[in-house]
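# nightly structure sweep
# worker-07 picked up a monomer target from the shared queue
# config: single-sequence mode, recycle default, output format = structure tokens
# input follows
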Amino acid sequence: MKIDDIELCASYWTVAGPVWPGSPTEVSPFSLQERAEVCGRIGWRGMGFVLDDMNAAIEQYGLPTVKRIFSDNGIRHVELEFLVDWHLADARRVASDAMFERKLEISAELGVEKIKIGGGVFEEGEPDVPAMRTALAKICERAAPLNIDIVIEFLPFASINSIERGVALFDGLGAANGGLLVDTWHIQRGGMTADDIRKMPPELLKAVELDDAGPEVLGDLFNDSTHYRRLCGEGSIDIASQIQAILDVGYRGYWGVEVISAYHRYLPLEMAAQRAFDTTMRQFQSVNLPVV
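# output follows
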């Protein structure tokens, strides 16, 4: 493998502009056409989307045109986020199921490769593993015919907050298209290290997101995650060591880059996309790439 073989995916918030998780609207003020053209020109080969933004793009352009925009700009990988409440048994579960069905409908047309989900977001204490496993098996089963991976992003402000807890959800489940997303920020803020990544079963390492963190948590973890992430190499995380561990486990897919930052989101679109791309690619220069 050469560094030119590395494919980067601009996770949604990296190029969405002045919106953030939980903001009054999560729909980017930049059109899909603008974002795809900028990303393609810089060298990004994937893009991620929240459902509201993708729905807005489909309403503006229609699904066939959305698909053509990706193709015209060299965007080969598309992912959707972020499903929550999928394990509950109340009205929130009904809303979650409806969102998931819409994601599948879109995915069937666009060839979406990954749907990102969170386990027990903002839930304290031990996770309800039996309920999660039952629901997760159904989610993976629904996505399998479309060749979609269901990837759980373990968050330090969720009940599924570690590699260990994430692995426990899939142990013996028999869902070949289910696995975990390793985010360098969540590894660091969750008190884990590259050595913990190396303990992962290779078949469960399905997705990656790269981003950096400051030396201290600002406010609570959700606030720090939503407003104060940093570009790769501009914080306190040893990004290269985590990349090396991910490669050593056997991951060979594309690499997401998720910069959720109050500073970054107000940069001009092209500047934000270029900085995120360049700083991330530099992290691979000190990594021992596998011989393929």
